[in-house]
Design a protein that fits this description.
171 residues; mainly alpha; 6 helices
Length: 171
């Protein structure tokens, strides 16, 4: 595959990620990546441009991995955007999601994230097994690990905060 073709494919994938992020969180309040959140839109666009222009010159395999990850992030953002429409603010959405989890035992709240993580790992492993292309599997692994990590940290933080608030109200 020619370098320009890799650039077009990667540009489409990064574009889907950036556009879905903008639709979901124009002010980046819901951006899960703290580095990109801090960089802002200018930083996100610069990083995307550097990836699109530079990565195809370095490695086809890395382009495949970043493309898979970018499309998976875009799908996740679209899912969040559809949920977000039922809430007035990003904060209310986050509070609602995490407070619902707090009412359940931690393991029961954690289980859906674990199932999602393992499903993506299984899918990536299956694709690697069938195609022999490790970088597609790496894309699935990076995406699923990152989402799993961010969701778990968010769940733990909000679970702990809610429990503290409840104890303070009881006192």
């Amino acid at each position: 595959m020619a370098v320009w073709q890799l650039m077009v494919i990667l540009a489409f994938a990064r574009g889907a990620d950036v556009l879905s992020t903008w639709i979901t969180s124009p002010d980046l309040n819901l951006e899960a990546n703290p580095i990109m959140k801090r960089a802002g839109w200018k930083g996100i666009l610069i990083v995307s441009a550097v990836l699109v222009i530079g990565l195809p010159l370095i490695s086809r395999d890395l382009v495949v991995g970043i493309t898979v990850t970018s499309f998976l992030v875009a799908v996740n953002n679209a899912r969040i955007a559809s949920k977000k429409q039922t809430y007035e603010t990003d904060e209310r959405m986050s509070e609602s999601i995490y407070s619902a989890h707090v009412r359940l035992p931690f393991l029961k709240s954690f289980l859906p994230y674990l199932v999602e993580f393992l499903s993506y790992i299984a899918l990536g492993s299956f694709i690697v097994f069938v195609t022999g292309d490790w970088y597609i599997g790496v894309g699935f692994f990076v995406y699923s690990s990152y989402i799993f990590f961010v969701q778990t940290i968010g769940l733990l933080a909000n679970w702990g905060d809610t429990l503290k608030k409840e104890k303070a109200q009881e006192s």
